[in-house]
Amino acid sequence: MKAAGSLKGAYGALNGVYWMLCCLAYSFSSNFLLGRGYSNSQLGAIVAAGYILGLLLQPVAAALADRTARAPVAVIAGSAGAVGLAALAVALLPGNGPAVTAVYCLFLTLVIMLQPLVNAFAFYIERLGTAVPFGICRAVGSLAYGLLAAVLGGLIRRAGENVVPLSGLVAAVLMAGLMVWFASAGTPAPAADRGGPKEGRAGGVLRQRSFRALLLASALLYFGHSFQSGYTLQIVRGVGGDDGDMGLLTMYAAVLELPTMFLFERLLRRFSCGGMLRFAAVFFAVKNLLVMGAGSLGALYGGMSFQLVAFALFIPASVRYAGEMSGPGDANRAQAYVTAMCTAGSVCASGLGGVLIDRFGLHAALAVTAACACAGALVMVLGVRSEPVK
Fold this sequence. Notes:
By secondary structure, the chain is mainly α. The chain has 17 helices and no strands. α3 runs antiparallel to α4, α13 packs antiparallel against α14 and α15 runs antiparallel to α16. The chain starts with a helix and ends in a 7-residue tail after the last helix.
């Protein structure tokens, strides 16, 4: 059995490499695809297709990961290998033909599919006998996201768009290596039974109104969040910036997540997950409204500052909230429900975002996303209970 500190450190590293992949998929798809000659509408369609396929595969992968005690390691390791192969193929294929489109879509699909598995891996480690400070480990992911974004902006400007898939290859290799390490960490204890129905507990969660409100709110909030992440380059260019400015702004937003995530375990001792989710939702709406009204890079930085109390608080609170509502044996599937709705919001943002920009302009697109964020905040505030129903 590995030492507790080593397990925590390795889970933090897993978050780091996974969110590096997310940085490439969420924030730098524009740089890669526009650099290869795709239009905004084509970009949106490709990213939306990747999200949809990832959404469809999330429950399948989660069910496989829940089958046996050690299955999560094998599923994540195999997925990481496939991500690396897809990234390598995209880097080697020229231009913007059907092959590039299909393989890049596969790359996005696999990255999206992995998210609930990486989140729920915290519960796998806890069954190894080590309590996981999820907020701190997730903060490592934000730090890696921000650092990679800062570096990539300048590298793309100098070396071209192929930096994106090549970075994905490196991150995938690192993730696979971590899974090999976890495979030697021992066999986790069987999932503890918290009572309630023995079968379909994750399905039972869907019958709770509070959890359904969380799912709907998550989709609406992620519509605005994903538009800002996926079309950051267009937003920055709209106020006179370039790829380098986009990388720095992305890094700024990611670094702002660190204090909240590092302090999340302390916040959890004082506030309920439901209360933190409602608080975060309100500031999602504020952030979207400020970004919509920004007319300069300075104003964009001001709007993105609310990442500190929006996305940074929502992520660990939603993971813990879903975990509280389900048993450890269903942790992967419960996470998959939440991630699926976030992905659904991302699908809509990606698919509609490019079309809205091309047909109606950037400001109209930002207005739509701000309206969705406000609706999501309203659903969260009115529908999510302070304490989950056990």
